[in-house]
């Protein structure tokens, strides 16, 4: 094949040439160039043999037809037309059918986008831990949404816009939560090793047997929620160590899950601050409303008192006029 020869010639063309201004080391440079040309010949291990086969293999590559275990497992999806992120956002807006509070627009956009990218990955498989994590995130974000009916619709729109069933997600999350009630951290750790026949052990065994298992942020948050149920202190440093142990029990890298755990607690702290701020705003608004109502009541009371006094004056004047009229009539008589 002429491909390796072409690369070698291109390399030589880019090399510096020897001119009349070359120093006394020109002979050494020429010697080095000569040795380089020898090392780049067709017989060289660099431009011949294995690398030549690798280049040929790459030039003849067909998506999904590579000679590898990964291609044999996922090659069937090559060329599939996937839903775009823009389409997911459009579906979300159409399903929701109502404007979103300005404070929540960015959060909802990130949720739909991240969830969409997870769902279109062929390696992703939905499981109860993922479902619990997704429900936990949605409940955390939307628990202080001003309009509760709209919050419920947002949750449904986020889930359904990426092709998931809200009923299935809620059911899987409820099953895992119910199973985790009353368990200890050690029992969860054993289940994460695949021991037993629990719903969590089934997930762990499937993950351990999948070489290309796709981790998602919601899986990690699902485990954080399990920690909360079994009484693990909801602290960033404590959760980090537990997450490292549980993910490690499945034989998978723990770094991303631990980082997601840290991110969850960081964002939860910000949301808690937002909740406090919104409650303070609500209290101030209620106080202002009470002050306004009290002021209106005072004004109404003052107006009533004024009207009563005016009525007394009018009645007194009428009585006085009536008395004068009676005296006049008596005098005439």
Task: Sum up the structure in keywords.
mainly alpha, 71% helix, single chain, 2 domains, 0% strand, 333 residues, disordered N terminus
Describe this structure in words.
By secondary structure, this protein is mostly helical. It has 2 domains: 58 residues, no CATH class; 187 residues, no CATH class. The protein is built from 14 helices and no strands. The longest helix is centred in the C-terminal third of the chain and has 78 residues. It is elongated. The N terminus is likely disordered.
Q: Secondary structure elements and their pairing?
A:
Elements: H1 3-14, H2 26-39, H3 50-59, H4 69-74, H5 85-96, H6 105-119, H7 128-142, H8 148-160, H9 166-180, H10 185-192, H11 199-208, H12 217-230, H13 236-249, H14 255-332
What is the mean predicted local confidence, pLDDT? 82
Sheet-strand content, in percent, reads under 5%
Sheet having the most strands: none
Helix coverage percent of residues?
over 70%
Which H/E pattern describes the elements?
A: HHHHHHHHHHHHHH
**Structural domain count:** 2
Radius of gyration: 39 Å
Specify the number of helices: 14
Q: Tell the overall outline.
A: elongated
Q: How would you classify the helix and strand content by structural class?
A: mainly alpha
Uncertain segments of ≥5 residues (pLDDT<50)? 1-47
Number of strands: 0
Cα-to-Cα separation, first versus last residue = 147 Å
């Amino acid at each position: 094949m002429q491909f390796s020869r072409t690369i070698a010639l291109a390399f030589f063309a880019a090399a510096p040439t020897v001119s009349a201004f070359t120093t006394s080391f020109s002979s050494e440079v020429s010697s080095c160039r000569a040795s380089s040309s020898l090392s780049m010949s067709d017989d060289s291990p660099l431009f011949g043999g294995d690398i030549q086969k690798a280049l040929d293999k790459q030039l003849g590559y067909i998506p999904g037809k590579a000679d590898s275990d990964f291609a044999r497992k996922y090659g069937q999806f090559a060329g599939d037309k996937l839903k775009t992120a823009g389409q997911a956002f459009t579906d979300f807006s159409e399903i929701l059918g109502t404007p979103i509070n300005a404070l929540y627009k960015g959060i909802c956009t990130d949720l739909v986008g991240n969830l969409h990218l997870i769902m279109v990955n062929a390696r992703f498989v939905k499981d109860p831990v993922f479902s619990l994590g997704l429900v936990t995130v949605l409940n955390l974000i939307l628990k202080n949404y001003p309009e509760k009916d709209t919050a419920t619709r947002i949750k449904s729109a986020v889930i359904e816009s990426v092709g998931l069933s809200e009923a299935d997600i809620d059911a899987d999350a409820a099953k895992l939560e119910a199973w985790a009630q009353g368990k200890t951290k050690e029992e969860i750790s054993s289940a994460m090793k695949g021991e037993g026949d629990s719903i969590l052990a089934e997930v762990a065994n499937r993950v351990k047997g999948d070489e290309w298992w796709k981790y998602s942020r919601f899986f990690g948050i699902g485990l954080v929620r399990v920690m909360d149920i079994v009484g693990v202190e909801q602290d960033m440093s404590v959760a980090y160590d537990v997450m490292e142990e549980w993910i490690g029990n499945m034989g998978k890298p723990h770094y991303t899950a631990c980082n997601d755990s840290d991110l969850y607690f960081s964002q939860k702290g910000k949301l808690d601050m937002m909740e406090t701020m919104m409650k303070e705003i609500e209290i101030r608004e209620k106080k202002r409303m009470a002050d306004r109502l009290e002021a209106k009541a005072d004004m109404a009371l003052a107006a009533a008192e004024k009207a009563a006094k005016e009525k007394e004056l009018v009645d007194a004047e009428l009585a006085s006029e009536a008395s004068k009229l009676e005296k006049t009539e008596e005098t005439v008589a």
